[in-house]
UniProtKB/TrEMBL annotation, chain A:
Signal sequence bounds: none
Species this chain originates from: Pseudoneurospora amorphoporcata
Family membership: Belongs to the dynactin subunits 5/6 family. Dynactin subunit 6 subfamily.
UniProt key word Cytoplasm: yes
Name assigned to this protein: Dynactin subunit 6
Function: Part of the dynactin complex that activates the molecular motor dynein for ultra-processive transport along microtubules.
Keywords: Cytoplasm, Cytoskeleton
Ranges of compositional bias, category Polar residues: 27-38
Any GO BP annotation: mitotic spindle organization
Chief location of this protein within or outside the cell: cytoplasm
Record region (Disordered): 1-38
Upper classification of the organism: Eukaryota, Fungi, Dikarya, Ascomycota, Pezizomycotina
UniProtKB/TrEMBL annotation, chain B:
Cited CDD domains: LbH_Dynactin_5
Main location (coarse class): cytoplasm
UniProt similarity note: Belongs to the dynactin subunits 5/6 family. Dynactin subunit 5 subfamily.
Species assigned in the record: Pseudoneurospora amorphoporcata
Subcellular location(s) of the protein: Cytoplasm, Cytoskeleton
A GO cellular component entry from the record: dynactin complex
Record key words, sorted: Cytoplasm, Cytoskeleton
InterPro entries (alphabetical): DCTN5, Trimer_LpxA-like_sf
Stated name of the protein: Dynactin subunit 5
Length: 218, 197
């Protein structure tokens, strides 16, 4: 390592300026500012991107990493309790043609909302969960770069590994693992409780690491 | 009208690092760049996910040098890639471990790297996913679109592809020079030199 200084501040000036802690190019607020309902204990990073006319709900102790996108253009976005949404993930994304689906109302005529995440869900880097009544069950992990089609209903405690795809409208049973190029198998380990506990521990650590700024969005 | 020179796309540091202005570096005090490293626009490096338990021995130097991401010399991070330290439960607490890249590492566009350690002279293709705590040794070529599962160890001189990634070949005897990134470093930046063919 050739640099002697511990922090590689590229704008290192000899004047001893206040050192910059992050290089975050400003992202303009494109689109309407959504009405939000944040729980008091959730962690929303300052550079999270929330757009859309519909409500965005983030429940107790959930963590939204910097540069995560929550788009409510197709309907309401609900994030459950103790969820983690990683950077560059998008909840309520448009489909590959660029349309934001609205979702078929359920039998009572109420709108399904764009995206609903159960409790303890993890949405990893770059995952795209399309809008249109998409439901991700409790404890599911949506892997890196995964695309969940509009209106899909993913069961509880599923694992969608990296770069997998769930077709629009598909229903995935509980405890399914989607791996390789679309192969499926059932997760018989019975570790759902342990995974939930580990997620709670991870959230404890993340809450201290990520400076939360919910007031910016309210 | 003032005729200031247009701001370059890259910031060039004293040690020769070329960091794009549009790159997203979170927690820069925990990111170590080796020197002559290129970071293209839309790259995201999470330096804020640093280890929270400092090693017990270094009580005095603990928090001052808490590296989350350490990158070697002549590395090339292409557009849109994400470097993120891996995390796991360690002694009852969830901790992030440092992500270490060696020298002459090429990371392709759109790739997500969550490995624990990447050796020297590694070429990672486009849209690759490297799972948490993977260890990639020296002189490895990861082909485009591979998904390296968590905890995989890729030995030196392998060629790796697939989802999940498997070793599909070996780097031939004469293939070592292809990993050098010095020439690629010169072609990027505010004053790019044309490629010498």
């Amino acid at each position: 390592m050739s640099s002697a200084t511990p922090s590689p501040d590229p704008r290192s000036s000899a004047h001893g300026h206040h050192k910059r802690h992050s290089i975050l190019p400003a992202v303009s607020q494109s689109g309407p500012k959504p009405p939000v309902q944040f729980s008091s204990s959730c962690t929303i990073a300052d550079s999270a991107l929330l757009t859309g006319p519909h409500t965005i709900i983030v429940s107790t102790e959930s963590v939204i990493h910097p540069r995560a996108r929550l788009e409510s253009l197709g309907g309401r976005v609900t994030v459950g309790r103790r969820c983690i949404v990683h950077e560059r993930a998008c909840l309520g994304a448009a489909d590959l043609q660029g349309r934001y689906h609205k979702g078929i109302p359920d039998k009572d005529g109420r709108s399904m909302g764009a995206v609903t995440l159960g409790d303890y869900v993890t949405v990893e880097v770059g995952a795209q969960v399309e809008s249109g009544g998409t439901v991700i069950g409790e404890g599911t992990t949506v892997g890196i770069g995964t695309r969940v089609g509009a209106g899909a209903v993913v069961g509880k405690h599923c694992t969608l590994t990296a770069n997998s795809t769930v077709a629009a409208g598909e229903a995935i049973p509980d405890y399914t693992v989607i791996y390789s190029n679309g192969l499926r198998r059932v997760d018989k380990r019975g570790v759902s409780d342990l995974k939930n506990k580990a997620q709670a521990r991870q959230i404890d650590v993340l809450r201290r690491m990520i400076p939360s700024n919910p007031a910016k969005f309210q | 009208m003032s005729r200031r020179p247009p701001r370059g796309e890259y910031i060039e540091t004293d040690t020769g690092n070329k960091v794009a202005r549009k790159a997203t570096l979170v927690g820069t005090q925990n990111i170590m760049l080796g020197g002559k490293t290129v970071i293209q626009p839309d790259v995201m490096i999470r330096g804020d996910l640093a280890r929270t338990i400092p090693p017990a021995q270094s009580a005095s130097g603990g928090p001052a040098n808490n590296t989350a991401v350490a990158i070697g010399r002549y590395c090339f991070l292409s557009k849109g890639c994400v470097l993120r330290p891996p995390g796991r439960m360690y002694k009852g607490v969830f901790t992030f471990m440092p992500l270490r890249l060696g020298d002459h590492v090429f990371v392709g566009p759109g790739t997500v790297v969550q490995a624990a350690q990447i050796g020297n002279h590694v070429h990672i293709g486009a849209k690759v996913v490297i799972g948490e705590f993977a260890i990639i040794k020296d002189y490895v070529k990861v082909l485009d679109g591979s998904v390296v599962p968590p905890n995989m160890v890729i030995p030196s001189f392998s060629i790796v592809a697939g989802q999940p990634a498997r070793i599909i070949g070996e780097i031939p005897e004469g293939g070592i020079e292809a990993f050098e990134l010095r020439d690629l470093y010169k072609t990027v930046g505010n004053n790019p030199q044309p490629t010498t063919s």
